[in-house]
Write a structure and sequence with these properties.
The chain is an alpha/beta fold. Helix 8 runs parallel beside helix 14.
Length: 312
Amino acid sequence: MALPDFFVLGVPKAGTTAMHAALTRHPELYLSRVKEPKFFLSDGPPPARGGPGDAQTYQEHVWRRADYEALFAPAPAEALCGEATPFYLYDLDAQNRIRRLVPKAKLIVMLRNPVDRAHSNWTHLWAAGLEPERDFVRACALEERRRADGWAHFWHYLGQGLYGRQLEHLLTLFGREQVLLLRYRDLRDSPVRTLDRVCDFLGVQTGLLDAVPSENVTPYVADTAVNAGLRAVLRTGGRIGHHFPSRVRTTVHRPLLRALQRQRGGRPTITPAQRAAILPFFVEDIALLEQVTGEFYADWLTAGLEPELFDD
């Protein structure tokens, strides 16, 4: 039976792709070639429909047990196996499934200022042509309706950032010694030291990883009439895409996305007014996060935008 020994299980837009890329270079570690297999997000087949683009994403889930184990079958005999699906922290049922199947797993959690994480999440989907709401605050206000309509986790801009309640649940399932908490800024500002912390936590040799591989940030695209049309086509293609084989969807999707992203625009930064509108949603949860972890996060209440260096 080939199952992971460790997970990078949270959170989206906090450097998990960069962490995955860095750890693949360690000779004592084996990470699944599929980044974000999403196996623990369901007990069976994932949904077939959701928000724009969700049908295609759901079809990419590795949900069969045999297929999931096959991801780790090529690992060297002595290597520790891992995978990175940053939605596992948010999905409490996924946490329960991991506990049942891999109770001794080590868990790496990467946290980011929840307001900046939400804004980066919205920017990612807007640049991909999938987000129909051009105003960040209004997009956040649509979350409850979108959740009720079955839109996938990545659309839950606010809910994804409630780390306090997510970690409170996680720590009822796993011992604190099984969980390593990191910040997005740790990997950004001190990559070598942070990677050594991860290696030490996993029990493998430190000093072997000297850099985080460069990961391109999703390009932000100009808000033009032409691009508005391309966005509409991409969103419609996402909704009907489940009727077509994945190779057909990819063949259609990629040229449209290239055309959309050809007209680059300046990447938006969150305004003080937007931050003031969104921050109150997280205040109580940040206090809970400090209580649950014993660590200090109150700087998130006043912090400015964190530079976008990694793409997830």
